From TrEMBL:
Chief place where the protein resides: membrane
SUPFAM superfamilies assigned: ARM repeat, Clathrin adaptor appendage domain, Subdomain of clathrin and coatomer appendage domain
Keywords: Coated pit, Endocytosis, Membrane, Protein transport, Transport
Organism: Asterophora parasitica
Topology class, membrane: Peripheral membrane protein
Annotated segments matching region Disordered: 642-668
Stated name of the protein: AP-2 complex subunit alpha
Function summary: Adaptins are components of the adaptor complexes which link clathrin to receptors in coated vesicles. Clathrin-associated protein complexes are believed to interact with the cytoplasmic tails of membrane proteins, leading to their selection and concentration.
Amino acid sequence: MATNMRGLTQFIADIRGARVRDLEEKRINKEMANIRKKFKGAYVAKIIFTYILGYKVDVGHMEAVNLISSPKYSEKQIVRQRRPRIVHQRLELKSAQGYLAVTLLMHENSEFLRLVVNSIRKDLDGNNEIDNCLALHAIANVGGSEMAEALAEDVHRLLISPTSQTFVKKKAALTLLRLYRKHPDVIPAAEWALRIVSIMDDPDLVIGFSLESILVIEHEYSATYAYYKVPSPWLQVKLLRLLQYYPPSEDPTIRSVLHQVLQTTMNNSAEPTRNVQHNNAQHAVLFEAIGLAIHLDSASPLVGTAAVLLARFISSKETNVRYLGLDTMAHLAARAESLEPIKRHQSTIILSLRDKDISVRRRALDLLYSMCDVDNSELIVGELLRYLKVADYALREEMVLKIAILTEKYASSYKWYVDTILQLISAAGDHVGDEVWYRVVQIVTNTEDLQEYAAKVVFEHLKAPSTHESLVKVGGYILGEYGHLIANVPGYSPMEQFHVLHTKSQFCIASTRSLLLSTYIKWVNVFPEIKPQLVNIFERYRHVLDAELQQRACEFYALASRPDDDELLQNVCEEMPPFPPRVSALLGRLNMKHGDTEDKRTWVHGGMEANLDRDLAKRKADAVAGDGQDILGSLSGLEISATSTESGGTAPESGSSTNPPRLTTGPSVDRWFDKLTYTAEGVLYEDDQVQIGVKSRYQSHLGQLAVYIGNKVSAPLTSFTTRIHVSDPDALSVTFAKMPPSTIGPRTQTQQLLHVECKQMFTTPPILSVSYLCGSHQTLSVRLPIVVTKFFEHVKLGAADFFERWKLIGGPPREDQAIFPIDLNNAGQLDIAKNRQVVSGHRLNLLDDIDPNPNNLVAAGVLHMSVEGKVGCLLRLEPNREAKVRCYSQYIGMLS
């Protein structure tokens, strides 16, 4: 064997001595020719070495099979002697020649594997522990479904055998786990579970907090388990991490022992020593102990002690200690109810963004993201924006996402949000993903009070000499939709808007120029004074080579060339409706970047709120047991967030309570509600403490409702929460666009945006419940003025068409008639003008000269529903003076 190994040694030396690739290949080919002529044991080692170098190997498979079944120790294994750096010599097992060849040269579907199953089973059943381990290695590394099915029983038997050595049991357990993960249908886990669990009573394999107690408190362990005076640190770390994956125990005895273990661990690690290895082992245990303390109770005195230790660690001279300190402090920020202990060290954490090690910089970014709240958001976002300009390229995309999320989440005003996010897009350049500029467009579109300011700010940014393409996209969309709001302001004329945007187009890719063409067709509709210039652009783009640009230009040219009074252009270029509620694409993108690891965390970056959301989502996912659905959606490619229907928690669907709340009554409550069913804005409720007003707009089956809640007293309204109840969520969806504040200051108001979607026909309006503390707990519930007529659209019909469709109704159930009293005007006459106002306010188109009686009102409309589609509706209102001022009304629906 020694002679054969000398041949291998010379072969390796020749390869290493080859000066160029050609000489190496020549030596390889010569050796492979020799191997094919006469095959010996050492030749398998040469084949393995050749394969490792990256050369294709087509021989040696059968010889490897034969070597595995060989009873000779020298052929089954490669053993060499070496002189360690310490004082004695020892025999080191390097690998098994036959097994190594099998694991390298064969894959799990190789036909040769069937030939080695019996040999592997023989080694599993043998009394030689080394043979046992070699066989287990081969199964774990190569084993396909056939090998798992054939040998799983033997692996299991080796695991539970009382005669197996501890290290063999460990390898058998790992092998069985690997097989179960790859082929769960082959492993009868339910049948084997009890026998496997019973192995935990083995003193060498026991797992649980009791062993931690033995190691840390009682110091009952063999000296061979001590690593630089730290008892089995790797096992301690595993046990402390394992306990974090399960809910904290309610047993007071267990909690007491755990508290004692954690307290002792923190005390033992309080002061570092001069021995680096000892410190490393102690710190590894300490940081996991802190993690477990946070998991058990983030408000406990132990965590207060941990916060003091972490403050010292993040300023340590040791890079690894700084890294672990920042990471563990991020865990604390993710679970703690109060961030004040962490905020005391905010300046140190910000300085860590400029640490010499990128891993530390990344952990500092995660911690700042997690510790951000309303009070420090502007400072942290400002620091992140400043650091973004000099940050590592590997960090910039993640930083952009986190800055965008924090800016939206903690925006103190809409203006601050727009200013910050546009600065972000300008500074980040190519690191801005589409999700970021999509999000800006969504928020501006869904916030009417922001649109004029956003148009001005984006125009100013576009005037810069150098502008990134993402900002051009934002500018194209916002100016196209809302440029008319600033057109009369000096310096923002239509021609100036066109000039500043079009000068950027020559540097943009085709998709961006396509978006700008859509901006121009919008301007054709609202800025007739620059129509010639816009039509000229369409004419030029009709001849470009890009198919998308050419087609769009041709269509827009034809549309713009129609008569000036053409209604088609006006309809096509109507303002975009509010975006429907959808999950934020920013958070989804950030989660995709983080991904999953084998050692999964029990928390996520983003503070306590994000972790509560994660826990809630996990519980819901567990409840449906895999019956999930993709809740990401888009309108024109853009997603909008649907966060919470209640302060302090998340509920992706409105109407989370099953029973409707009791409505608040009052002399004017019904009158306020009735008026808002046919008007867009007004007071919904008012008393001595609060006033609730609404402002709404609707487009097709979508709507947006702004609810203004004002505090009328000189004391703050605390513990403020809101909730929506929808009687039929399958027919109507109402969700909040943003979490409400928990406090409304004295004599101030807050605004909450509701996104509304009509899916099917509904009859019961949703209910808004508001609760707060102001001297005592107050709760009020009022109906929101969201009725089915809000989703109507005007229809023009002539007399012949109207009556023809009227006859097609065919009576009940598609026709309904109601008789009700109506009010008279001050002169005691029928108030025809008021009746017309009510009907048109219900978004029905009044059709004049249809009915012979001028007092009768005739109207038509189309109801838009996202699920059931469009349904035509006709109405006749017949005031009857002789019938004691009663009104005969017919609502006719279900017209296809």
